[in-house]
């Protein structure tokens, strides 16, 4: 997209106003180049704490720090001009109470330029979300499977089946009351996601939820095939770039070992070649 054709980035109220409209498109990003690739195509780019697993090889998101989120947030911000940037609050940066959450949310936004923060939790986070929103911090909520609670949830399991659906619905109503401008629904049954989408006034963004949600999000390294340690059921690989990258690296290694790379066109001569039209300059010939 040309510079003159770029749209301005949406804000929290713009996203809220998309409820029931055309689906919102969202992906995670952690680096400047990837942010540039998705800027013209996404409404929301999330700097996710999934960076810990995807780029840093961590076993979960629990060890991701504020400093890591700020570093990756700054990188992503350099690649965006059309998409809204939202940044995850890492584990232990908000659960203790509203005041701590405000300090850390304000720091994340101030140091990265993010337009909003995302935090996990429903009913138990209602007071905190309300506190942040009243003080100028737009909040995207995240309910259903909340990866920062993986140890208490007993793993990365589907949430909200059978009687547990009432709790997920209560979480959705709580974050709506608190003033969140949107909510991520992760790994919940499609029928429950559809009910929540119909009953709350803010956009729902599904990941392993339902095509009926107001939008969708995926981890970019999952959908591009870069992250291959495991593949959740809800991930569609739109490319297999991990395989392509490994094949290219193998070809490079083979050419280096065969001394066919670098070839003559990749190395430099002792003298720079003469520029065209200057070989006889000053001789009169």
In short:
The chain has 285 residues and is α/β, with parallel strands linked by helices. The chain has helices at 12-16, 32-38, 51-54, 66-77, 98-112, 126-134, 150-153, 165-178, 190-199, 220-223, 241-257; strands spanning 24-28, 44-47, 84-88, 116-120, 139-144, 182-186, 204-207, 215-218.
CATH topology of the largest domain: TIM Barrel
Mean pLDDT: 94
Number of helices: 11
Q: What percent strand?
A: 5-15%
Structural class: alpha/beta
Number of domains: 2
How does the SSE layout of this entry go?
Elements: H1 12-16, E1 24-28, H2 32-38, E2 44-47, H3 51-54, H4 66-77, E3 84-88, H5 98-112, E4 116-120, H6 126-134, E5 139-144, H7 150-153, H8 165-178, E6 182-186, H9 190-199, E7 204-207, E8 215-218, H10 220-223, H11 241-257
Parallel strand pairs: 1-2, 1-8, 2-3, 3-4, 4-5, 5-6, 6-7, 7-8
Describe the structure.
This protein has about 280 residues and is an alpha/beta fold. The chain has two domains: about 5-235, Phosphoenolpyruvate-binding domains (TIM Barrel); about 240-265. Helix content is about 35%, strand content about 15%. The chain is built from eleven helices and eight strands. An eight-stranded parallel beta barrel has the order 1-2-3-4-5-6-7-8, surrounded by five helices. Strand 4 (about 115-120), helix 6 (about 125-135) and strand 5 form a beta-alpha-beta unit. Residues about 1-5 have low confidence and may be disordered.
